[in-house]
Structures
1.
Amino acid sequence: MIEFKHVRKAFGRRVVLDDLDLVIPPGKITFIIGKSGEGKSVTIKNLMGLMHPDAGQIIVDGEDITRLDEEKLQVYRRKFGMLFQNAALFDSMSVGENVIFPLREHTRLPLPAMLERVEEVLTMVGLPGIQHKFPTELSTGEKKRVGLARALVTKPKFILYDEPTTGMDPLVSEMIDGLIVQVNRDVPGVSSIVISHDLKAALATAENIVMLYHGRVTLAGSPKDFRESKDPVVRQFFSGSVEGPMEFL
Ligand SMILES: Nc1ncnc2c1ncn2[C@@H]1O[C@H](COP(=O)(O)OP(=O)(O)OP(=O)(O)O)[C@@H](O)[C@H]1O
Ligand SMILES: [Mg+2]
């Protein structure tokens, strides 16, 4: 369970998170949505201790992580597996070397166990036996899947997806949304957090949606709550219209 309590973050006079209260329930797929510049990335950076709030608490598994020093934060960050927007694979390394990398960095498993785990996560993302390939030989969708395998390899408790389908064609997007659902179902105890502009994907994939607007949560709830919401900001996000309370800068 993750809870933001009265979190504030400003850059100079620009208040990005304004007394933000946010709950991310365990075991579920939570989408954090909001238009560009509403603070999705800032929220995630604060959650991972890469940025520190000016005020407020961020409670993760009962611990206020805003109080941790850098050494403790490094240990804390191992709770998270992150799938970056561009998959961020090392092009000079094979798929196998990419996926084993976090295990070498953070564990002392014997090599055969590491290799077994690599095969296990590649199978999970539907790409068994491609350890010898190089990222340049892969399609965009395959790169994403390898990136996800690498995020999963150390068995994190939370998987963070940063804009997993932005810029992807519809078929690849659907495949990735399907994978998010599959991983959240098949990996015991895992919680998935997806940052997205994509309301349609959120409605199809999320169990819980949090919409950020002006530094706060406009609405948090199920896809049904969102479909039925009469909140003008939510309605405008649905319609994609420039008419409404939300201004597009
Ligand atoms: N390090 C920083 N210094 C100053 N301002 C920042 C910094 N990081 C973010 N901001 C500002 O905070 C606001 C929110 O940024 P953020 O990156 O969280 O938006 P976002 O919701 O992730 O948008 P997008 O959908 O475009 O990724 C923006 O106005 C941005 O300019
Ligand atoms: Mg962002």
2.
Amino acid sequence: MSAEAESYYSATAHPWPTQPLLRGELRVDVAVVGAGLTGLSAALELAQLGYKVAVLEAQQVGWGGSGRSGGQIIAGWGCDQSKLVALLGREDAKRLFDWSVEAVELIHQRRQQHAIDCDWRPGHAHVPLKPRQVSELRHWQDDLQRNYGYHTQWWSREQLGEQLASNRYLGALFDANSGHLHPLNYTLGVAKAAREAGVQIYERSAVTKLDSGSRPLLHCEHGRVQADSVVLAGNALLSGVSATVENRVMPVGTYIAATPPLGEARAKSLIGNDMAVADINWALDYFRLSADHRLLFGGRASYSALQPPGLRATMLRRMRAVFPQLADVDFEYLWGGFLAITMNRAPDFGRIDGNIYYAQGYSGHGMAVSGLAGRVIAEAIAGQAERLDVFQRIRHRPFPGGKYLRMPLLATAMAWYKLRDALF
Ligand SMILES: Cc1cc2nc3c(=O)[nH]c(=O)nc-3n(C[C@H](O)[C@H](O)[C@H](O)COP(=O)(O)OP(=O)(O)OC[C@H]3O[C@@H](n4cnc5c(N)ncnc54)[C@H](O)[C@@H]3O)c2cc1C
């Protein structure tokens, strides 16, 4: 995993003042572990409600998925709605879908309210590669319209061809409400808003131990924080703090590459309407243009902590399979990150020991709903736990094999799904 490599996002990030290291003893109402969108959103909402909040971040704000992602902002969750219906019943599955739409709206509210400059562009297309996937997407569209009142458009192959210069796909499910943004600049914008609301953010302050109790205590190398409530928002990167929470998700490595600027005309010749695109394979390709006219191309999951061999060549081959016209274009940036998946791919939000809250396992689909998760946790801490209670009804199982065996077991399962994508 080239976690330390500079990404296109860090190279184009808005200035952000380094936050202090935690030193000594601190007493707050709520301590948040992790300065990604889950933790920052919870911290912002809580500070707005009058709570004294500290955020402890192991590296720097936006270090995790929130600052490295594809930036695709998509209504819905990491699993199909049918899965949520099976887990929760139709009524609560509908509420979850509506809350995912609220999550997209929350991004717009925050962008406007806090003047966050993050290159928002509307429009997202899910694209099928096989006839089976055309049927799946058409069924999905019908379900969204009929049962969730959510309107999307079906585009034929010819209609898609008017916007996307690739003949790889058989059509598109286009959602005008979803879109894409610069994830790190959005995350930094939320962090700035949180600071302005009074949140204390500490960077390079990894939490190494959590003592639970009526006043949980968080230990860092140079200091400790005592709080009435704790929010664990480390997601895929949380390690050694709470086995109960960590064993419920599996970290999966995924990679993105950015071409050099292609120039406006060439970039527009690839994606005319500037939408984000994702196929629906298990190991999917997802791509979009940046504000400075690069192609950002994501894909290639890995179920080990190591960067896959030949990553650059694989990514180039995948990009050129979509856009053969980019045969002369190499990548300027290539980076990776970890996302967290759950066994059933449904989100995992909850509370343990009465005052330790967590949200994780967005299963590759967390850019929007992590913000909602922070809001739901803030509501619960403030005494309104109705929404958290709905999420807590989703049954999750820890990954079999615990910390050391879950990776190989998942790799085997994923190999099967990839084979299925290749064959049918
Ligand atoms: C390469 C990539 C592409 C993606 N693309 C998309 C996409 O296009 N659309 C989409 O919806 N989702 C995407 N995702 C998923 C999305 O980024 C995540 O679901 C979302 O950002 C999760 O936010 P978070 O705040 O929960 O976690 P993170 O953003 O990962 O933040 C967790 C933070 O906690 C910190 N931390 C962990 N442990 C500790 C500790 N012990 N002490 C202190 N701090 C700690 C970490 O350093 C990190 O900063 C992608 C993810 C990756 C990695």
